[in-house]
Amino acid sequence: MRPLLLSIPLLWLTGAASAAEPVIPPDYAAMMKEHIGTWETTGEMCVDGKCEPMTAKWSCEEARPSSALWCEWHHFMPDGRPQNIEHEAIGYDTESGKLRFMRIHENGTVNTVLIDVDGKWMRRHSEYPKDGKTAVAANDIDTHTSGLWKQRFTLTIDGKIVREMRATQKRVAAAAGSQSGGGS
What we know:
The chain is mostly beta strands. The chain is built from 2 helices and 10 strands, in the order ααββββββββββ. The chain starts with a helix and ends in an 11-residue tail after the last strand.
């Protein structure tokens, strides 16, 4: 099953096998390399002011022969639900000039987002209508310390924060053969 799961997003990210590798800007290539390894996530998710702890373990590896990454997420639910496993492909999108993340959810659904890289920050901000109101989503990840990231996500509707997540992502092991080390 994993070869099939790998082949679909990698074909999507890399195009035809004969296509040349894209020229990835150095800051985007460095951000992709920063993802490589095994990570632990801790933090809290707050919905309408009620907060619950959240944890996850995830890992990313190079998806050779392409310049893309393949990641696997294990989310641990605080309310006793079974853990959730998701797969993610990450690559550079030449049309938008951004990183493209494609998440394959356990229930078979897929979502794709484009992420800006701004130095040592990854950012995604969007605005959309929700129930006749304006929703603003902001996801900012500070990667200034290699292997130790700080993340904040907010969903604001009509000026009120209705969902907020604060998390720390810590690399606990480098991938085999990788030069990426753990955080301090």
